[in-house]
């Protein structure tokens, strides 16, 4: 029997969306920088686009994190997503030395 | 569209709570933002005639530049040559005492220079009105009187809540979308009408709201975003703009008149309005030209820009030059332009003005609905007396929006009598004085009485704008009369709202937060059902 969704454990879900969602957004920007070949100059227009990407990813994570059944699940799934994303970035050699 | 009921119920609760936390701040941001669509015209309306001698011609400008640099060497750090002279830009040449970050956000004392008829240098620190800029900052900081560094993260948090409100509101509306979309049920059920209005406003301006929410998140957090990227992916942190190199740049060799003709050659269709002489972060002389091209979106609220070689006038960087951008730059520019409404000229400005006002109204109706649904729940539970929190929230829903509207009206109108002695501090004191008076008054008197008393007060404050224009007409000729006409129109709307509020207080249900104490017909089921 599935537990119905509720706004009761909003804090667990929202904090996961806020913290891990930010890391997802940062990862998305990092992946874009690798794929678009941005390099180290932030103020190139591609670098600016990488920064802009963070807003929609973060905002969507914070808005949709309530769809998880519980705060614990939100933290778990978003952590897993982060792990996958950041492993890919590390594999492609995008991390700071 | 079918959605699970538990999902819709959850998002309905979330929508209510994020809305109630952010709604009043968003009202201020949207109302002030709507006015900021016409920041330029408003500044021209509010700026008193200058004491400066008429600006020298562009051909004589090198003489003015030479005199300013000789008598005020600090101006060499950065000064602006204005190509179009009007009330808001009375001087051919201006410079600011501020450096780096402060200058970027418009701080510091501005100096305006001209040549007197006898050829001597004339410098003034008073001139263009600061009131339009004050309203702009109020918009950026969602009405908070704090430093930029403190206000911006709060604004960013509000913008995130606002985005959650958009997503959750959409989820709540989707299941009944087809049924509710074209229904505006105006009638006995006032709550139903407010809800229909809230849905219609929200849905039809949805793309605008998504754009504004996302761009505001970037405007609030861009420094943090760049810093986090620097930590994660390496590269230099964003350079500290406060630590500009101290050496004065060499004087530009090409006179302004020639710079203008060089720009016209290279970018036909682009109308330059100002030349900003300064230095690059590495200390070399730099020249930036500001201007517009009606055919393209613009990076700034009013203008696009290009970097020129000061010695030759050649365009060295066209990332922000309208019509000369590559796909990446044009994409970035579109984000800014969609927030600023800086594309398509005046019709888009008016469209954004109306979208901004309807956004403010959307948040106001949201607050009303929160109060109304709380009221209903309490009645079901048997309590007829409204709870303290509902009463306070109802009072704030009246006092904050009307205080903001009246405060901005009063401080804008004050620009005329203040004239050249206007400062950002005085305008700020007037705004917050009126705003706080309205909020405290609403809390003391309750929503019903305050609404009836403050609507005409806000309308009268709005009327002060054209009254100030007429009173100062001798010393301050009437310019940009559209400001006065718009103020008259909004004042009329406020008077009409006053009439219907009075009717409602007298005839509406007695247990409403809008009912005046001791009035209204007895509401049989609600008030008489309890034990006698």
Mean of all residue-level pLDDT scores of chain B: 87
Terminal-residue CA separation of chain A: 48 Å
Structural class of chain A: mainly alpha
Please tell me the overall pLDDT of chain A.
90
Task: Describe this structure as you would to a colleague.
- The complex is a heterodimer of chains A (97) and B (532).
- In chain A, 70% of the residues lie in helices and 0% in strands.
- Chain A has 97 residues and is an all-alpha fold.
- Chain A has one domain (11-91).
- In chain A, helix 1 packs antiparallel against helix 2 (45-64) and helix 1 runs parallel beside helix 3.
- By secondary structure, chain B is α+β, with helices and mostly antiparallel strands.
- Chain B has a domain at 5-42 and 146-210 and 345-525.
- Helix content of chain B is 58%, strand content 8%.
- Chain B is built from 17 helices and 8 strands.
- In chain B, strand 7 (304-308) and strand 8 (315-317) form a beta hairpin.
- The radius of gyration of chain B is 26 Å and the shape is globular.
Brief account:
With 97 residues, chain A is mostly helical. Helices cover 70% and strands 0% of the residues of chain A.
Name its key features.
heterodimer; A: 97 residues; mainly alpha; 3 helices; elongated; B: 532 residues; alpha+beta; eight-stranded antiparallel sheet; 17 helices; 8 strands; 58% helix; 8% strand; disordered C terminus
List the helices and strands and how they pair.
The complex is a heterodimer of chains A (97) and B (532).
Chain A: H1 10-36, H2 45-64, H3 71-91
Helix pairs in contact in A: 1-2, 1-3
Chain B: H1 5-36, H2 39-46, H3 61-71, E1 79-82, E2 93-96, H4 100-104, E3 110-115, E4 121-124, H5 131-140, H6 148-173, H7 177-180, H8 190-204, H9 206-233, H10 256-266, E5 271-279, E6 285-292, E7 304-308, E8 315-317, H11 327-340, H12 346-380, H13 388-418, H14 424-445, H15 447-471, H16 482-507, H17 524-528
Helix pairs in contact in B: 1-5, 1-6, 1-12, 1-13, 2-5, 6-9, 8-12, 9-11, 12-13, 13-14, 13-15, 14-15, 15-16
């Amino acid at each position: 029997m599935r537990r119905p969704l509720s706004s009761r454990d909003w804090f667990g879900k929202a904090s996961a969306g806020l913290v891990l969602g930010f890391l997802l957004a940062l990862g998305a920007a990092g992946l874009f920088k690798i794929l678009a070949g941005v390099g180290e100059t932030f103020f190139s227009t591609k670098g600016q686009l990488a920064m802009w990407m963070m807003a929609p990813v973060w905002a969507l994570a914070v808005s949709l994190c309530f769809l998880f059944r519980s705060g614990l699940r939100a933290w778990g799934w978003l952590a897993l997503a982060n792990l996958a994303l950041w492993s890919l970035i590390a594999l492609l050699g995008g991390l700071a030395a | 569209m079918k959605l699970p009921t538990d999902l819709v119920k959850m998002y309905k609760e979330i929508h209510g709570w994020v809305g109630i936390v952010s709604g009043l701040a968003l009202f201020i941001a949207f109302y002030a933002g709507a006015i900021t669509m016409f920041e330029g015209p408003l500044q021209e309306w509010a700026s008193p005639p200058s004491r400066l001698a008429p600006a020298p011609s562009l051909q004589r400008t090198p003489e003015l530049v030479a005199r300013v640099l000789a008598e005020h060497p600090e101006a060499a750090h950065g000064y602006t040559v204005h190509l179009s002279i009007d009330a808001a830009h009375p001087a051919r040449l201006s410079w600011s005492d501020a450096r780096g970050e402060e200058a970027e956000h418009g701080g510091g004392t501005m100096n305006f220079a001209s040549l007197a008829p006898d050829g001597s240098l004339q410098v003034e620190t008073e001139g263009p009105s600061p009131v339009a800029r004050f309203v702009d900052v109020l918009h950026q900081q969602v009405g908070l009187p704090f430093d930029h560094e403190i206000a911006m993260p709060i604004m960013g948090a509000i913008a995130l809540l606002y985005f959650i409100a958009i997503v959750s509101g959409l989820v709540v509306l989707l299941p009944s979308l087809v049924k509710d979309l074209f229904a505006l049920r105006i009638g006995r059920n006032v709550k139903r009408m407010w809800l229909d209005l809230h849905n219609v406003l929200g849905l039809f301006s949805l793309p605008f709201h998504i754009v504004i929410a996302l761009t505001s998140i970037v405007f609030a957090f861009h420094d943090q975003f760049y810093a986090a990227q620097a930590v994660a992916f390496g590269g230099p942190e964003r350079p500290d703009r406060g630590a500009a190199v101290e050496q004065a740049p060499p004087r530009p060799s090409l006179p302004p008149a020639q710079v203008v003709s060089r720009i016209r050659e290279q970018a036909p269709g682009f109308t330059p309005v100002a030349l900003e002489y300064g230095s690059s972060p590495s200390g070399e002389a730099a020249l930036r030209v500001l201007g517009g091209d009606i055919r393209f979106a613009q990076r700034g609220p009013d203008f696009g820009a290009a970097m020129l070689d000061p010695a030759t006038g050649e365009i060295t960087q066209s990332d922000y030059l309208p019509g000369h951008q590559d796909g990446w730059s044009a994409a970035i520019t579109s984000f800014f332009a969609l927030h600023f409404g800086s594309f398509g000229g005046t019709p888009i400005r008016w469209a954004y003005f109306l979208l901004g006002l309807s956004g403010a109204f959307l948040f106001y109706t949201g607050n009303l609905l929160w109060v109304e649904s709380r009221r209903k729940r309490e009645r079901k539970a048997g309590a007829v007396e409204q709870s303290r929190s509902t009463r306070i929230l109802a009072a704030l829903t009246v006092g904050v929006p009307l205080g903001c509207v009246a405060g901005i009206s009063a401080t804008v109108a004050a620009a005329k009598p203040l004239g050249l002695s206007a400062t950002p501090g005085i305008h700020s004191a007037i705004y917050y004085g009126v705003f706080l008076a309205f909020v405290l008054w609403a809390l003391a008197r309750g929503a019903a009485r305050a609404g009836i008393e403050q609507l005409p007060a806000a309308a009268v404050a709005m009327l002060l704008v054209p009254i100030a224009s007429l009173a100062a007409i001798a010393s301050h000729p009437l310019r940009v009369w559209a400001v006065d006409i718009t103020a008259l129109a909004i004042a009329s709307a406020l008077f009409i709202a006053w009439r219907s509020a009075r009717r409602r207080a007298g005839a509406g249900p007695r247990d409403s937060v809008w009912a005046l104490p001791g009035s209204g017909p007895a509401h049989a089921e609600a008030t008489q059902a309890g034990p006698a």
